[in-house]
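Person: Please comment on this record:
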Amino acid sequence: MRLFPPLLLLLAATGPAWAATGPALVYAGGNTLDEQQNAQIHQQGVTLFTQMSGVPVKEVTTVGAADRLNQLRQLATEGYAPILVIGSGQVPTLQQVAAEYPQVHFTLIDSQLALPNVQSVQFNQQEAAFLVGALAAMVSETGLLGFVGGMDLPVVHKSGCGFAQGARYANPSVQVNEQYVTSTLDLAFNDPKKGAFTAKQLVDEGVDVLFADARGTGLGVYQAAADAGVRAIGANMQQADLHPGTMLTAIYQNLPKAVLTSLTQAQAGQWQAGTRKLGLADDYVGWVDDKSNAGQIRPAYYHILTQVQQDIINGKLQVHDYSLTGSCLFPQVAGDLCKVNENGDASHCQG
């Protein structure tokens, strides 16, 4: 992971601006994906920050709502600030504790909570989802794509909407069928069996490329795709290397970098309540292109995706954020992506 020069300068030029106890970070635990993600944040975010700043960070892993409530209250009582909290699954607990401790600063990463002592750090994952949606439309032979979301939440709709926008941009005649696994937060992102069942329903409808934003539940989606001989796209970096020949790629959110930036800005006295949005331009979101999915994206498609990515970064192409309107809007002008493939024809595209 790159560390941009402004971060290095900020750390070198400023001294600690903490409460007496210092910063803290609350992870969500409970499954292997959580453990992998937490380890990456610790190594590439927290440890790197402490090495450069000399400031230790209290790290806590919680499992279940009761444990989260107790741990957050204890950290707030002991004077830790800011307290960083990772993930939408912790929002209900954070909402309660932040209201109980209005003088404590909290930073919520990868979700949103509108309170005067909470900073919400959100990812523009719709930008990365747009790119893999375009890829899915180019790869699809049936013109039917599937999106599996863990739960009907705005943050999940951002991925689904971005995927649909990209697919329609590449091929206006493509259809995206969406399914949301459950309305129960504790099961939405940790139920591979339900993910597989949902994916099979979509495959039975004719879907031949599946995109899942469902964390652990997505593992079942990818297994179902492999069993059915269709392609799949993941939503976590470590999911791109699953089921060789099935996974095209995955989108990612650079959580370690977001944590590092949040800690650095807080140390410099730049913590502010409200919302910060992080996107493609500074590698906070993206799509996997490394040895984990080597050979899965054809050269012509790779070239197209990199050009579309640059158009998004430059502002030439606007990707709609579902969370702003509660609905999915599409580009007014479709692209010509399905007019090109590595053989110079469009026989693989529908319509």
Residues 1-16, 339-351 have pLDDT under 50 and may be disordered.
